[in-house]
Design brief:
This protein has one domain. It has eleven helices and no strands. The protein starts with a helix and ends with a helix. Keywords: Membrane, Transmembrane, Transmembrane helix.
Length: 283
């Protein structure tokens, strides 16, 4: 059950990133995360009203707020990195660390895996890096690596915090988390919006809302699936399986946009499939 929920989370995260990326191509990229986080906040509120509430203790809400800091910082850093840096550096670094940080925490906290599961986890990290790889200019400036590290650690913190909230938390930790993340992306977007206004560029808010809202609803569902997965399995395995979401984004880009899958990405997709098979069959 945990592996299935984690894979569903990966699929949903992948579709969310695909829609968010399409929105970022049509409007100023700084605008899209704002409706994303706002709609995600509303979606989580609806989930709580529908009975996915759990127990809103102080510890649960605190871990949720900490996760929101990670989510907001991760989104802001990834946005800046992809917009102004080398995607071929920022994307794989952030994706690998987003899976690695909670995996390390899980192992230190006492997760015990079978040999096949360990093999799957070990194979998943290069799979994540390869599927996230995009063709770009040569070289990898320290700034681009830094964006990837900050984004990956932010998303990793989100996963760890959601897990630490506990299996009885329901959707409650995501409510303060989404609120804090919304504040973070608003602060991060303000300078970019001010710069665009000074240059007299039109802010297509309607388009940003349409794409951001769709991505935000999916992002909230993905968070709920990840939260449900942590109640049924070990964080190490769940984080790695969820971290394979770039494979979904790559496949959607190939199927919908007819983008070419590069050789490295093809190898990554195959490695991801093998990693999933090893982890799932390990029980």
């Amino acid at each position: 059950m945990a592996a299935l929920l984690a894979l569903l989370a990966a699929v949903t995260y992948g579709v969310c990133d695909f829609l968010g990326g399409l929105g970022g191509r049509r409007v100023a990229a700084a605008l899209v995360p704002i409706p994303m986080q706002a709609v995600a906040l509303v979606t989580v509120g609806i989930a709580i009203l529908c009975g996915f509430g759990g127990q809103p203790t102080l510890a649960v809400l605190t871990w949720g707020a900490i996760g929101g800091i990670g989510s907001g910082v991760g989104n802001a850093a990834l946005l800046r990195g992809l917009a102004g840096g080398r995607m071929s550096v920022v994307a794989p670094v952030s994706a690998v660390l987003a899976a690695a940080v909670p995996s390390v925490v899980g192992v230190v906290s006492g997760d015990r895996l079978t040999l096949f599961a360990w093999l799957g986890v070990a194979l998943a990290f290069p799979a994540i890096a390869l599927t996230s790889w995009t063709r770009g200019p040569a070289g990898s400036p320290l700034r681009d690596v830094g964006y990837g590290v900050v984004a990956g650690c932010g998303f990793g913190l989100l996963f760890v915090a959601v897990d630490r909230a506990g299996p009885d938390a329901g959707a409650w930790p995501l409510l303060p988390g989404q609120f804090v993340a919304l504040l973070v992306v608003l602060v991060a977007a303000t300078p970019e919006i001010a710069r665009l206004r000074r240059r007299g560029e039109r802010l297509d808010v309607g388009t940003a809302v349409r794409w951001g809202a769709a991505a935000g609803a999916l992002g909230a569902v993905a968070n709920l699936l990840f939260l449900a997965a942590t109640a049924h399995g070990q964080l190490t395995v769940i984080a790695v399986l969820t971290g394979l979401y770039p494979a979904v984004t790559v496949l959607l880009a190939a199927l919908v946009l007819r983008e070419r899958i590069h050789r490295q990405q093809a190898v990554g997709l195959v490695a991801a499939a093998v990693a999933v098979a090893l982890i799932v069959t390990s029980g």
